[in-house]
Amino acid sequence: FIEALTEAASFTANKIIENKRPKPKQAVRLTRHIRDQLTQSIESHMAEVVSWSSQNQFVGMGVPMHTSTSTIALDIYTQPRRYLNIGDTKVTNEEDLLINSNHILLLGEPGSGKTTSFKRISFNMLTKDSSRRKDTLQFPLVIRLRELAEDTTLHSTIANILGIRNLQYEVAVEENSKNPKGIITKTQILHAIDGNLEKIIPYCLNNMCVLLLLDGLDEMKSTHRDAIRNEIVNLSRRLTDSKIIVSCRSGDYTKQMEGFAVLEIRPLSAEQVRNIASLWLGDKHPQFMERLRSF
Are 243 and 277 in contact (CB under 8 A)? Predict the structure, then answer.
């Protein structure tokens, strides 16, 4: 993972400085600086994602439980439930979401497991043998949309995660001077990212083969949600080697996101309820199931 990240960061760094035309020594130094910043920032984000994705806790739970031992993979309808024909049971699974050729809008009722599914996907990507996966994505970037300030854009948020939004570097600049000593060399501070983030961010994500998980589109205020939705669609059009999955409550799916396949989490079957009860309650789960049937 670190080797892939370093290689992708180096390639991205070269892209970032492509139009700056620095001198050869400065180019090497700048590329290394940007690569190291990208690598450190993403490693920090991955540590946060591992911590977030490994724990599962709901209201009323005194102690969090590990995601891998307290949750199960869910079935997912290949289209929204409201459009399903009677008897239509076409379903897919979380693993297949990653190899689906489209970006995805994942719908679900409140409490259906949208965020938990994101946790399982993230944790598996970061902790399991990547050679056994069918997709080519390298690692997840997770953004909880409800946490974005109203004046924050999606692109600036991604730039902050990558550590490149305010990235600066020093260059030596030679200036002619009337000073008897002749040419004077000065140090100048420049911004590595002085161009359009809408162009830089797709370069970064594509070169790193990122899975961008955007959780909770429905939890944003309406005006900010519309702006972020437009940003997501515009970003998706520029991504060729990265993938976006957005989660949203089924009832808040009122506007089409062009280019996104719309899927929906399937309600739990009786067998899945038993499996979850067994994980949570152990030997006591039969009594729970009996009481559940009595309602």
Answer: no
- Residues 123, 121: Cα–Cα separation, whole Å: 6
Q: Which helix (H) or strand (E) holds 76?
A: strand 76-77
Indicate the helix (H) or strand (E) that contains 10. Answer: helix 2-16
Q: Mind listing the pLDDT tens digit for each residue in 201-232? A: 888 888 888 999 999 999 999 889 999 999 99
User: What Cα–Cα distance (Å) separates residue 181 from each residue in 173, 174, 176?
Assistant: 16, 13, 10
Separation of alpha carbons 145 and 228, rounded Å: 9
Decide which of 162 and 115 is more confident: 115
Q: Whole-model pTM? A: 0.86
Q: Is 267 helix (H, G, I), strand (E, B) or coil?
A: coil
Q: What's the Cα-to-Cα distance from 237 to each of 88, 113, 136, 244, 259, rounded to whole Å?
A: 31, 28, 19, 11, 8
Beta-strand (E) ranges in 168-230?
A: 168-175, 184-191, 210-215
Inter-CA distances, 141 with 161, 165, 279, 281, Å = 8, 16, 28, 33
Whether the Cβ atoms of residue 90 and residue 77 lie closer than 8 Å to each other:
yes
% of the chain residues with pLDDT over 70: 79
Find the helix packing angle between 114-127 and 24-54, rounded to 10°. Answer: 120
